[in-house]
């Protein structure tokens, strides 16, 4: 199966799971709480190589994944809805799409609130003050409330890459250095 087809398949699975979770959260009136739990889960995934391995590796059995996720749910006190959802995802051997589910849920929640979403890549985690300032700047440009999905990528060295819809603003140090390198090649 070509890579494009695989990513579309994963995206479709993630969107279906996210849609189901969103509908359950909407019925329970807990979209904000579920979103907060999903943000905590993403932070756990981003901060733990072992958890990343558990999620993506086909070596772990469904039972091993279920036990690990159940322990995680207990340890971090995820709500009943999110806890049960994670267990279902683990039992169905779909943990590998969990980051996609989280992203799709955020998009659904933002759309429900009339927000637009910006994907932001930063060399380091943003502080709460930086995130608030970024949201305010993006609201000034777009005229709408903006939810931000921050991804940390140390390889950009510094600055930000911001994607809002089809627009991208790249102020990363890596890009600036690449541009300077090209300019120097043209001069010499």
What is the number of independent domains?
2
Identify the CATH architecture of the largest domain. Orthogonal Bundle
Radius of gyration: 19 Å
Pairing-aware structural class of the strands and helices? alpha+beta
CA distance, first residue to last residue = 45 Å
What is the overall number of helices? 8
- Strands of the largest sheet, in order across it? 2-1-3-4
Fraction in helix: 55-70%
Helix-strand pattern, N to C?
HHHHHHEHEEEH
Q: What amount of the residues lies in strands?
A: 5-15%
Tell me the name of the CATH homologous superfamily of the largest domain: N-terminal domain of the delta subunit of the F1F0-ATP synthase
What is the makeup of the main sheet?
4 strands, mixed
Protein architecture, described:
The protein has about 190 residues and is an alpha+beta fold. It has two domains: about 1-115, N-terminal domain of the delta subunit of the F1F0-ATP synthase (Peroxidase, domain 1), CATH 1.10.520; about 115-188, Glutaredoxin. It has helices at about 5-30, 30-45, 50-55, 60-75, 80-90, 100-110, 130-140, 175-185, and strands at about 115-120, 145-150, 160-165, 165-170. A four-stranded mixed sheet has the order 2-1-3-4. A hairpin with a 2-residue loop joins strand 3 (about 160-165) and strand 4. Helix 1 (about 5-30) crosses helix 6 (about 100-110). The radius of gyration is 19 Å and the shape is globular. Residues about 1-5 have low confidence and may be disordered.
């Amino acid at each position: 199966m070509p890579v494009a087809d695989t990513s579309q398949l994963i995206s479709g699975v993630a969107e279906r799971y996210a849609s189901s979770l969103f509908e359950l959260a909407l019925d329970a009136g807990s979209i904000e709480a579920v979103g907060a739990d999903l943000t905590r889960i993403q932070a756990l995934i981003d901060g733990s190589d072992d958890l990343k391995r558990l999620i993506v590796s086909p070596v772990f059995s469904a039972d091993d994944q279920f036990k690990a996720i159940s322990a995680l749910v207990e340890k971090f006190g995820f709500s009943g809805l999110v806890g049960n959802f994670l267990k279902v995802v683990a039992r169905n051997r779909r943990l590998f799409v969990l980051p996609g589910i989280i992203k799709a849920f955020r998009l659904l929640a933002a759309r429900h609130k009339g927000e637009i979403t910006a994907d932001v890549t930063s060399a380091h985690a943003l502080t709460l003050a930086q995130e608030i300032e970024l949201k305010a700047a993006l609201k000034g440009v777009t005229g709408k409330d903006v939810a931000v999905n921050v991804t940390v990528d140390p390889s950009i060295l510094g600055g930000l890459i911001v994607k809002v819809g089809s627009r991208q603003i790249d102020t990363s140090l890596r890009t600036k250095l690449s541009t300077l390198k090209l300019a120097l090649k043209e001069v010499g």
